[in-house]
């Protein structure tokens, strides 16, 4: 697939025009067109012609598009000077995208290709509205579907926790050599969502981001590390539908349902060692909707790094509604981290006030270098007079609705308020009842890398 171009800037056929057979097309300014090889449209309306060019010469006047294939779409024609030339949306683009997204036999399940046509198992979540007062009857679009001020049609979420593959699609099995920039970039490794593999682990946050971004290329730009907004959207859906997915929270079992058993990566059941199970091997009850069409292992197995939620000295920063200068929460996953939205809210722990964790609109607490925890459903909230923010915090599943611990299945919120802490979600194979879709871990710095940390890719459908 040839790269698209934002806003489709136009040039024009140069003085003298062209006939229907030339393979060098003269234009006034080829610098506004994409690098070769690529395609452009000449003219407008149903009589336009799409050509493919393999070279671009801007050294003389006029500029030239060389090695052209005429009538790539449409009919080759003679074009007069001044006829517009631009990189528009062609049938080729639509057909290529559709060819990379293949419908699965399960509802809302698709196989989505990476840059080398390696297919990933994905689950489509269509756009929905949500706010704290009206729930899914709201008129407010959930932040997961606001990408750089654009309302996304939906999101594709990895059906399985990520493994790493090479360009040929071979799954990498080493647990000691794959957590490096070089292997992911020059070595060609990238994330993949595949069933029945030991999920990638011992990977830090930045490597997880990189592994997902390396799925992009050859005209594909939508792959990214699953974001906290996307995770929250799914968690809120589960709560609304009174579904609590089971998971691997006890070395291959679920503490609440002992009949839930997956295939362990090391083949050894017990209460010590590395208790990960193979992705999706716990059965339908371990997916987000408790069917085989759902998203697996959001509860337990490995904590998952998510993009778009961190604390800096306790202050909460999230992905915003714009790539630059955001003014609300959103899902602009391409934004530089320096452009995440400063919410103005803090995680606050006060050992002298009942040892509770409060989400506070002022930095009123003592910085905590030790890990502190609180049941997600029991988190406190404090807002000064006139302050707002609870709706946003609930939309992003950073706080609950004060309905109590049981409503959130005893999932736990962990925090430290010193330094910069990047979020993980879901819990791991040894967290027991503290794991779950609402579990949040804000205790770790981005360089943390152990056997219970993994990640998951996602894909934006704009």
Biggest sheet features: 10 strands, mixed
- Rounded to an integer, what's the Rg over CA atoms? 25 Å
Helix content: under 10%
> Which percent band covers the strand fraction?
25-35%
Measured between the Cα atoms of the first and last residue, the distance is 17 Å
What would you call the shape? elongated
* Count of beta strands: 30
Number of helices: 5
Are there runs of 5+ residues with pLDDT below 50, and where?
Answer: none
- Report the mean per-residue pLDDT as an integer: 90
**How many structural domains?**
2
SS content category: mainly beta
Architecture overview:
This protein has two domains: 10-89; 101-462, no CATH class. Helix content is 9%, strand content 28%. It contains five helices and 30 strands. The protein has helices at residues 91-100, 181-184, 205-213, 228-240, 390-395, and strands at residues 10-12, 25-27, 38-42, 49-53, 55-57, 63-66, 69-73, 84-86, 101-103, 109-113, 119-126, 146-147, 150-151, 154-158, 162-165, 190-193, 223-225, 253-254, 257-261, 303-312, 315-318, 341-350, 356-360, 372-375, 380-382, 412-415, 420-425, 440-442, 453-454, 457-461. Strands 20, 21, 22, 23, 24, 25, 26, 27, 28 and 29 form a ten-stranded mixed sheet that branches. The protein has a six-stranded antiparallel sheet with strand order 9-10-11-14-30-17. A five-stranded antiparallel sheet has the order 1-8-3-4-7, with no helix packed on it. The protein is elongated, with a radius of gyration of 25 Å.
């Amino acid at each position: 697939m040839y790269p698209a171009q934002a806003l489709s800037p136009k040039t024009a056929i140069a003085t003298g025009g062209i006939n229907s057979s030339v393979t060098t097309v003269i234009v006034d300014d080829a610098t506004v067109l994409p690098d070769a090889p690529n395609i452009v449209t000449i003219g407008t309306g149903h009589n336009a012609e799409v050509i493919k060019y393999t070279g671009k010469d801007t050294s003389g006047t006029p500029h030239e598009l060389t090695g052209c294939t005429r009538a790539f779409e449409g009919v080759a024609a003679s074009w007069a000077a001044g006829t517009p030339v631009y990189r528009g949306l062609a049938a080729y683009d639509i057909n290529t995208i559709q060819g990379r997204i293949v419908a699965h036999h399960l509802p809302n399940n698709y196989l989505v290709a990476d840059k080398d046509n390696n297919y990933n198992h994905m689950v489509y979540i269509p756009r929905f509205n949500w706010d704290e007062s009206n729930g899914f009857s709201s008129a407010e679009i959930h932040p997961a579907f606001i990408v750089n001020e654009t309302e996304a049609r939906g999101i594709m979420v990895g059906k399985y926790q990520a493994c790493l593959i090479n360009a040929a699609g071979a799954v990498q099995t080493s647990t000691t050599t794959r957590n490096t920039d070089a292997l992911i970039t020059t070595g060609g490794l990238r994330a993949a969502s595949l069933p029945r593999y030991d999920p990638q682990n011992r990977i830090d946050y930045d490597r997880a981001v990189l592994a997902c971004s390396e799925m992009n290329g050859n005209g594909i730009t939508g792959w990214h590390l699953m974001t906290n907004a996307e995770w929250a959207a799914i968690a809120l859906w589960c709560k609304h539908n009174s579904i609590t997915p089971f998971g691997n929270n006890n070395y291959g079992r679920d503490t609440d349902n002992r009949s839930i058993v997956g295939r362990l990566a090391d083949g050894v059941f017990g209460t010590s060692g590395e208790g990960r199970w193979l992705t999706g091997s716990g059965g339908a009850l371990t997916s987000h909707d408790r069917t085989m069409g759902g998203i697996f292992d959001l509860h337990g197995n490995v904590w998952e790094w998510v993009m778009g939620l961190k604390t800096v000295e306790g202050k909460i920063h999230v992905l915003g509604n714009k790539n630059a200068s955001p003014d609300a929460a959103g899902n602009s996953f391409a934004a530089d981290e320096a452009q995440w939205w400063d919410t103005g809210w803090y995680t606050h722990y006060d050992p002298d006030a009942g040892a509770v964790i409060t989400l506070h609109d002022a930095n009123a607490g003592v910085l905590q270098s030790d890990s502190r925890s609180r049941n997600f459903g029991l988190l406190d909230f404090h807002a000064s007079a006139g302050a707002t923010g609870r709706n946003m915090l609930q939309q992003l599943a950073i706080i609950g609705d004060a309905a109590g611990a049981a409503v959130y299945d005893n999932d736990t919120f962990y925090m430290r308020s010193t330094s910069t802490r990047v979020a993980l979600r879901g819990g791991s194979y040894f967290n027991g009842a503290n794991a779950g879709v609402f579990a949040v871990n804000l205790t770790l710095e981005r360089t943390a890398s152990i056997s219970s940390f993994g990640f998951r890719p996602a894909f934006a459908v704009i």
